[in-house]
Amino acid sequence: MPEQPTHTFFNSRCAEYKTPFGAVPAGQTVTWRLTVPERLGYVDPHLVLTKDREDPVHYRMNFDGQTPGVNHFVFQLAPTTSGLYFYHFDLYTDFRKIYRTANGEGELTWVNGLDWQLTVYEPDFKTPDWIKDGTMYQIFPDRFYEGVPNKPLPFADRIYRPDKTGEPYFWPNEQSDGYLNMDYYGGDFAGIQQKLPYLEELGVTCIYLNPIFEAHANHRYNTANYLKADPLLGTNEDFAALCAEAKKHGIRIILDGVFSHTGSDSLYFNREGRYGPGGAYRDRNSPYRSWYDFDSGYVGGYRSWWGFETLPEVEEEDPSYSNFVCGKGGVIDTWLGLGASGFRLDVADELPDDFIEKIRTAVKAHGEDKLLIGEVWEDATTKEAFDHRRTYLCGHGLDATMNYPFRNAAVAFARGEDASAVGEQIMSICENYPKPALDCAMNFLSTHDTERGITAIAGEPANGRDRYWQSKRMIPGDRIDDALRRVLLAYAMLYTLPGVPCVYYGDEIGMQGYRDPFNRAYFDWNSTERRLRVPLTNLARLRRSCDAFDGGSMELVEASADVLHYRRVGKEQSAEIILNNGPHLIVRTAFGKQTEVNPGGFTILVEDNQPQHVGYFKYY
After folding, report:
1. Which end of the chain is more exposed for a tag (fewer CB within 10 A), N or C?
2. Is 584 inside a domain boundary?
């Protein structure tokens, strides 16, 4: 049984015990310090360090002096190769060990426990600086704004939706063929371009677009032609014009790269025959045949993404496919050449590491300022997929990932859950992620794959209920004020934690919706709701004006019950953020000042890192 914690043996998050904090580049020296009470008698502490999937190595720690009743030990090591390392301490003399508890501290125990993690990344790992103090905005292209009204539909099987306030279709068609995603509201490149002043005013510096390539569903994740924009959105030239105009507003654009599968209804597979007699499905001699895995053992005779026959999986490591995506004149080269500033990789944890590294090479060939983000729903450093530890966050793959752990923490806190678990989730990511990746992680509250933030926070839980239950289900009017307040609390976290905040289109006007397709409604441009827009704009401005939010370090001050309090420290300025999800006004000390925080509100203080500092408040 663990000994009751009356002494702090070790704390990985405290500079007294470990430096530097968190992940380190290969070659940097790490110092571990252990304190052991004299009452335990003679001990011979060893650091037990295990590189992922290798045998443990025992390093004898050096005696480092005494303080009253306590012996001190130290050990230094500079890991030479990137990857994950796990460690604990062994006292040797009485067979007891020191393992990690939930808050990073150590406990003395006779039995095996949890190891600490040390992430080591490539020493030359760098990520684009332009994104780090900015604000992202995600657009589902068909549902944002129709800049060219009454366009002719490019394909006869599409359904045009002139009723922009109408709920997205979700029922099967008359043949009961399932939910086909064939209703289109007409959002296009021209519409996004017309709304660039609106986005600039909101503080947006980067737009993330869901797929724009030609495809035969409104979500466009079933790619039909990688090298051609979907004609309902516009042409490739229209996209280039959008990027050029966005640049004038200080906004860059990144695209969704869907490279684990294509559509069955595509130029490459062509099961439906839309593209003539060719395609891998219809022609064994097709140049695309090697992209796919045909076998009678699969449903439909080919391997498909999670069993969806409309999404045949590709063989990413097939030389023909890999070159098509990553080679000169390929997908990456084409769209970056048209003005895109990077890609978000769909289902990155299902792409081989070697393939992601080739994508990175292709992206960075257009400049080190090009961004590569991956969709990963868990801690990306510990992610395992297909019996393989993923290494894409160690400096030779992704720049960063979508920060689902922070999203989960923000939703939990805003819903009123205890702050201690929220603080642990935040600090675990801060400790495990390489700083270059953490600084440009995508911090969001909603996406096309999740419930809208306001629905997740204040709506009735769906608990697996079907689309008929989710349809038109809204938060009651008498609860909207409280719901918006909680959403703002969650966004205040995401704007001030390490990483880059990302607003899902319509969140800023309180749009509601459960899962797909209800989270993908057309933007309500007639809305007069501004209770989120104004503070989100102010938070974006604060990020740009305070360097604590541009890669500043993260220190957790308090995480208990209703209160989350943390500090960001930059080169020139520091910020203290206090969030209160409780029903009562609280008072906390920040920068030596007694600071009030309203119930359900937050306070942000910023001070210069100078002896004669000048401070100011941001208060909501």
Report:
1. N
2. yes
CA angle in degrees (0–180, nearest 5) for 162-166-167: 135
Give me the domain span that covers residue 273: 261-315
- Please name the amino acid found at residue 130: W
* Residue (of 217, 207, 215) closest to 442 by Cα position: 207
Q: Is the torsion defined by CA of 183, 185, 186, 187 positive or negative?
A: negative
Contact yes or no for 220/182 (Cβ under 8 A): no
CATH (domain of 292): 3.90.400
**CB-based contacts of 129: which residues, under 8 Å, 6+ apart?**
369
User: Could you read off the pLDDT of 576-605 as tens digits, one per residue?
Assistant: 999 999 999 999 999 999 999 999 999 999
What percentage of the chain carries pLDDT values higher than 70?
Answer: 96
Is the bond into 162 cis (omega within 30 degrees of 0)?
no
2 pLDDT above the threshold of 50: no
Domain-located, residue 224 = yes
Mind listing the pLDDT tens digit for each residue in 159-173?
999 999 999 999 765
**How many Cβ atoms from other residues are within 10 Å of residue 555's Cβ?**
17
DSSP letter assigned to residue 114: B
| pTM, entire model | 0.96
Residue 10 belongs to some domain of the structure:
no
How many Å apart are CA 447 and CA 88, to the nearest integer? 38
Q: Which pLDDT does position 613 carry in this prediction?
A: 46
Does 90 lie in the same domain as 147? Answer: no
Q: Looking at the DSSP assignment, which residues form a beta bridge with residue 86?
A: 50, 117
In a domain, 615, yes or no: yes
8 Å CB contact between 573 and 546: yes
CATH code of 596's domain: 2.60.40
Residue 579's CB: how many other CB atoms inside 10 A?
27
Structurally, how many domains does the chain consist of?
Answer: 4
Q: Nearest to residue 170, comparing CAs of 514, 525, 527?
A: 514
Residue of 360, 430, 422, 419 whose CA lies nearest to 13: 430
Q: What is the mean pLDDT of residues 355-370?
A: 99
Q: Report CA dihedral (562, 563, 564, 570) to the nearest 10 degrees.
A: 160
